[in-house]
Write a structure and sequence with these properties.
- This protein is α+β, with helices and mostly antiparallel strands and 644 residues long.
- 22% of the residues lie in helices and 31% in strands.
- The relative contact order is 0.10.
- The structure holds (2R,3S,4R,5S)-2-(hydroxymethyl)piperidine-3,4,5-triol.
- (2R,3S,4R,5S)-2-(hydroxymethyl)piperidine-3,4,5-triol (DGJ) is lined by residues 250, 280-281, 325, 392, 394, 440, 442-443, 459, 462.
């Protein structure tokens, strides 16, 4: 599998280049227009290896940024046309890495809407195995991540090589085992429907691949990704801050709300200790359903007669911050914006414009479109005291063409779109640094390091069912830090699955992430509100540990009905254990859970009980299954462990 293919003006194509030189440079490689891990990392040392083709004057510079203390290498590639003829990149992958055998298993995070990032592990076989997205976004069905695992590697032992692409559009991650039984991993922008015209003296830079090595199994790899993504990738000022407990009105009201309803939810939420009210879809244009108004970013006066300012001031007066939903990359055919600018969407001339959720995609490869969006969003954000944005994106691409690009550049549209998205996100997050941005894409359809660079948290999935969330959150945590993974308690029966689980189970699952609510608190009785109040207070007491502690995944929901996570402070003196049992088996075998990640030499008190147990015992013998898990289905239990 070649990583590059370049077409000359005469139509011939080249995939082999010869080595010219190398140099080692300290500092930050600059990736113009792309999110970057290395851009923020002072300590990375970068090795540049230059390949050239002297006949066509093409230079290819391979950049390896080495984070020695972290077992991390970040790789990207720059193509430079130093000649006087046009070149066309047909394949411009970020990584090509060879292994001398194929005794590995391949791990990917695969799924769908409402079932994102499930673990799929399979042995390598001869031939090519790949995952990809051709939908214009990194997508629900695959994530921009793969790992090669030693066949015996487990959660906490064995060698693992992780590859994570800092990109949010069409991507390819391929593994080929060849006739000599060697293995090649390639990763980067998907060559499907891609080419890039490189005029004389122009450059093209690929996104970064973040490679992590671990000899402590998958858990070791994940903890490295969590650390470096928090430390170097996220540019938000909130990257190390405890994230607010918010309540979002989507599942509470859908489009059917008005100012009084939102105020009532916010008022009651404030009495329960919730910290932010987020107004979701439906506050703008004439949006009473999903048929219209995307692009018309001005207030729906029938619903909010006092404007956003009136609502925000009221919410703030209850002691809550206020957050707002946008879907800035979209345009509804039934909108003032579309009536004024019918060529502003991605489309192919004279062809039917397919809609998804009744909407089209704005052509972010166009500067005029980007400027108009930035202008509209800025006006809204300046009009009221808005502390948070949920940036949604709810459909994938079809008819991928741009009205302003030449015919020979049409295959650049999807990549230019993503570069445009990055530019708008960059400008908006720089212009409004105090706003906490959360990304979303029909739930977790664009949960990737590219977006995380701009927005330090993402809506993990539209599926808020606790049982499903165990798998989704477990899978997401393979690469992404817990502070980035938002998790809300929603109503029973669950709106996605129809399943009814206890309030306490739903809380215990959501509390293992960046916690919040997605329900109508005004419908609860005093007992239920009392419970929510207690749970909110409890989460505040463990929030730092959950969002910023080291995560040890103890039991996988993909292996049995049990799941367990342990979050441990850096000094190992404080920890919080989450245990879940989905289905109860009558008279089943006894269960014992070992707690990796503690300090064997310390003694830990379990909650406020009189049980004090040594780290060695907790790590080697473990604890017996707590009684709360031994009766009934859908049970969860949280235990705090503090060193004495
Ligand atoms: C999809 C998101 O994932 C939901 O949380 C909600 O914001 C809807 N879009 C609103 O249209």
């Amino acid at each position: 599998m070649p990583a590059y293919q370049v077409q000359l003006e005469n139509g011939t194509r080249i995939t082999d280049l010869s080595y010219e030189s190398y140099e080692i440079v300290k500092g930050k490689p600059k990736l113009e227009g792309l999110p970057s891990l290395t851009a923020a990392a002072e300590e990375a040392e970068t090795l540049y290896i230059t390949l050239v083709d002297k006949m066509i004057h093409l230079k290819v510079i391979l950049s390896y940024s080495i984070f020695e203390k972290e077992d991390v290498i970040v790789r990207s590639v720059k193509f430079v046309n130093e000649g006087s003829s046009k070149l066309r990149l047909q394949r411009a992958l970020s990584l090509s890495m060879d292994f001398d055998h194929y005794d590995y298993e391949l791990l990917s995070l695969s799924g769908s809407w409402a079932r994102e990032r499930h673990l799929v592990r399979r042995p390598l076989v001869h031939g090519t195995q790949s995952i990809e997205s051709r939908r214009g976004a990194s997508g629900h069905s695959e994530n921009t991540f793969i790992a090669l695992l030693d066949k015996k590697a487990t959660e906490n032992s064995g060698e693992v090589y992780g590859f994570s692409l800092v990109y949010s559009g069409n991507f390819l991650a391929g593994v080929e085992v060849d006739q000599y039984s060697t293995t090649r991993v390639v990763m980067g922008i998907n060559p499907f429907d891609f080419s890039w015209l490189l005029l004389p003296q122009e450059e093209f830079v690929t996104p970064e691949v973040v490679m992590v090595y671990s000899n402590q199994g998958l858990g070791g790899m994940s903890r490295t990704y969590h650390r470096i993504y928090r430390k170097y990738l996220m540019k938000s000022k909130y990257k190390n801050s405890e994230r607010p407990i918010l309540i979002n009105n989507w599942e509470a009201t859908y489009f059917n709300f008005n100012e009084d309803k939102i105020k009532e939810i916010a008022k009651q939420a404030s009495e329960l200790g919730i910290e932010m009210m987020v107004l979701d879809d439906g506050w703008f244009g004439k949006r009473d359903n999903d048929n219209c108004s995307l692009g018309d970013w001005y207030v729906h006066k029938d619903k909010l007669p006092n404007g956003l300012k009136g609502l925000t001031d009221a919410v703030n007066s209850y002691g809550l911050k206020f957050g707002l939903w946008f879907e800035p990359e979209m345009i509804s055919p039934d909108s003032d914006l579309y009536r004024a600018h019918p060529d502003w969407c991605l489309h192919v001339p004279d062809r039917h414009r397919s809609t998804g959720r009744n909407q089209l995609i704005l052509d972010y490869s166009r500067e005029d479109v980007r400027e108009a969006v930035i202008d509209m969003l800025s006006k809204v954000l300046e009009s009221a005291n808005i502390s948070y944005i949920k940036w949604d994106m709810n459909r994938n691409m079809t008819e991928i063409g741009s009205a302003l690009l030449d015919s020979e550049r049409q295959q650049e549209t999807a990549h230019r779109y993503i570069l445009g998205v990055y530019q708008v996100m960059d400008i908006m997050t720089d212009r409004f640094p105090d706003i906490l941005f959360e990304s979303c894409s029909g739930g977790g359809g664009r949960f990737d390091p590219g977006i995380l660079y701009y927005m330090p948290q993402a809506w993990t999935s539209d599926d808020t069912d606790g049982v499903e969330r165990l798998k989704i959150q477990y899978g997401t945590s393979i690469v992404y830090p817990v502070c980035a993974m938002t998790a809300h308690v929603s109503a029973a029966p669950n709106h996605q699955t129809g399943r009814s689980a206890s309030m306490s189970f739903r809380h215990s699952v959501a509390m293992a992430g960046n916690f919040g609510y997605e329900l109508d608190v005004t419908k609860f009785d005093e007992d239920e509100k009392g419970m929510i109040k207690e749970q909110v207070a409890y989460y505040k007491s463990i929030r730092n540990l959950v969002q910023y502690g080291d995560l040890y995944r103890l039991l996988s929901p993909f292996d049995s009905d049990y799941t367990s996570f342990l979050y441990v402070s850096e000094d190992k003196k404080d920890a919080v254990l989450f245990l879940y049992r989905v289905m109860y088996i009558p008279n089943g075998p006894l269960y014992r859970i070992r707690l990796d990640g503690l300090n064997a030499d310390l003694k830990y008190r379990l909650d406020d009980s009189d049980q004090v147990i040594t780290g060695a015992q907790l790590m080697n013998y473990g604890i017996n299954e707590p009684k709360e898990l031994t009766w009934g289905d859908f049970n969860g239990k949280i235990i705090r462990l503090r060193a004495e």
